[in-house]
Amino acid sequence: MESIEALVAHIQVLSSSVDDISHLHNLLKQAEESLQSQASRLAPFLEQLDPSKHSLGYLYILEAYTSAPIQTEQASELTVSIANFINSCLAEQIRLAPDKFTSVCKRFKDQVLLLQAPIQGVGPLRTAVRKLQPSSEQLTALHPDFLQLCLLAKCYKTGLCVLEEDIFEVDQPKDFFLYCYYGGMICIGQKLFRKARELLLNVVTAPMSTTNAIAVEAYKKYILVSLIHNGQYSTTSFPKYTSSVAQRNLKNFSQPYVDLANSYSTGKIVELESCFETNREKFESDNNLGLVKQVVSSLYKRNIQRLTQTYLTLSLQDIANTVQLSTPKEAEMHVLQMIQDGEKFATINQKDGMVIFHEDPEQYKTCEIIEQIDLSMQRMIALSKKLNTVDEFISCDPIYLAKAGRERPRFDFDDFDAVPQKFNM
What we know:
Layout: H1 4-13, H2 18-30, H3 32-37, H4 43-46, H5 55-67, H6 72-88, H7 91-94, H8 98-114, H9 119-132, E1 138-139, H10 143-152, H11 156-163, E2 169-170, H12 173-189, H13 193-205, H14 213-230, H15 244-249, H16 255-265, H17 269-278, H18 280-285, H19 289-308, E3 313-315, H20 316-322, H21 328-340, E4 346-349, E5 354-357, H22 367-395, H23 398-407
Parallel strand pairs: 1-2
Antiparallel strand pairs: 3-5, 4-5
């Protein structure tokens, strides 16, 4: 086995052409055990390499170096070094060793969490995701870590830039579960409840052989988001494509949330608040207390919306009495919030204490609306083409055909030509 010094020399010489990189990669694979055994003394060798030129070799040495225990006082300096490497490394080189790049980035995330500075990791991990992805349709092992840091640093808008991309290719189921779960929480933070509901539903309905903790927590939040967004949730049925494991077990781990949904469906504030207080400790221990409070607040809004289906003008006092609010001032605050959120169009006459409800003024003929519709249509066309491609691929897959052949009945009516039941002679 060559010395580390000799290996560094090879890295410096063989990091230019494609053929040289291939040869260097073989040398690095052979040196893995040696690098791991000398992890604690690798720091000086990193200083001899340029991560923007010697990315593959730098990655192998950095991965071995970070595998050793890191002292707390070294954590800050290490995170800076790894961040610099992520920002300057060559994507075509680090993709030759994706597992090692992923390992380094995950250790980087652990270090910024240890320093209680998640915001320091948001930018570098976003860059890491882009460099590791062969295309924007690929879900990488770094997506969940990036979204987790965005969530902890409250950089929700930064996380949304990744969530807006359509994902079609997934390698590891756990990455998909975490991606959708953290993504759902980011959308909740931005009050994008429709998108949050969609992501959380992906977790709940994803194939699973056993019940996992991510799906359980996603199901709890899915119930709450459904109540806020739709004003209802059916606790008796799952979508048909949900795994039998999820259908059997998820409700058993989420009974307080099922009870909350049942109380919500009555439309009675007293029942909902009673259920809330009964299960308050459980909601708090699940870190869902704030979301549950939004559920309670949304019922007031739903009840106010029901009033607008009957009345065009109402006093704030009448609204407060009907929806069981303490004072007209509380009713005014709820109506103002609904107007601000675009949920209702109304005018409040504070002098008389009256609310006049209006029709939606949007005519859906502006350039912005037409552009949104066009973008949606283009996205649906692209999705349809993608589904057709996947369908053709599966239809030709030998494993699928063998399985379908085993499960097909021995005789099928489609195997025979239609024959008239009667012949006129």
